[in-house]
Task: structure prediction
Amino acid sequence: MILKRYVLKQFLQTYGLTLGALISMFLIIDCFERIDEFVSRDAPMSFLFFYYLYKIPFVFFFMAPQAVLLATVVTLATLARHNEFTAMKACGIGVTGITFPILSCSIVIAFFVVLLNEFVAPITSERMNYIYYVKVRGMESQSQLQRDNIWLRSSNGSIWNISFYDPDKALMRGVSLLYYDEEELFMRRRVDAERVLWNGKQWEFMNGSIRYFTKESLKKTDFFEKENFPVLESPKDFQKIQKRPEEMSLREMYRTIKAHETEGLDTHQNWVDLHQKLSYPFIAVVMALIGIPLSIRSSRNGGILFCVSVSLSIGFVFSFIYAMGISLGHGGTFHPVLATWGPCFLFICIGFYLLLTMDSDRLIPI
Result:
């Protein structure tokens, strides 16, 4: 138990230094890129200070899992360098017992990142964006008002598809209004209009057509220059505020996806983003499982620098495959679960294989 606490203490100390260094490097580089805008707009230095203070949880989400790999490698390589690893094994403690505190801590880190990103990061990200977009850039709101490709299901069952909406003028362009027969599941009528304008009481559809359908085919088409249709929506119903992704919790993302599904929207990419936000913290577990056997094996062939280079190379390969999975998921090639969790599961299997073959003298026992 004492030795396990010793390993855990060494890992936590190294992890804290590594994480602090990665976050500091990111903030410093980002500060050099943005400070010109703060200065050119005569923003007080307090704005810059609080902007990066609120940005720390956002950066922590991305750096916390990645720092596990480097901390694992440095911790175990240091133990091996001072022959502490060999002494522990001589005392009857196996590799699993020595590395169990690191694996356990990586799981705790993963869940902590999930909780932080669910309850803290959305609030701090919203305040961060408020400082940058409202106080510094002078925008009226840091949120984004959706103007393009709006879908809305009306309470009477009809569906709106709007190419562009100008909320200031209450003007729509490229509008389609679809009426469905819910009992027999086919489209009864479709209204298309170049422009739709709110006159204060109702919507005026201009330069469009009305197509009538039967279950088998198109029945007839009527054209019009200006027409009014009985619809229930007013301009405020089309003013949809979109939060930025970093300002949304997992619960908000899930509710948004479900709302889009009821509107008939394609939510495949949204599901990928949701699973990515949930799976990314558990990269910490993947990094620990990969880093433990590789650092022990590589310490037999070289020093700490060699361990770090080998492990970081594998970490880079994992990051590349993970990013490729996300891209294929966004493109619709992979299911959202496979795109986000597939690389994690693959490298967890590789990590367990390397752990089970620890007695091999080869760096990669293939």
Q: What stands out?
A: The chain is about 60% helix and 15% strand.
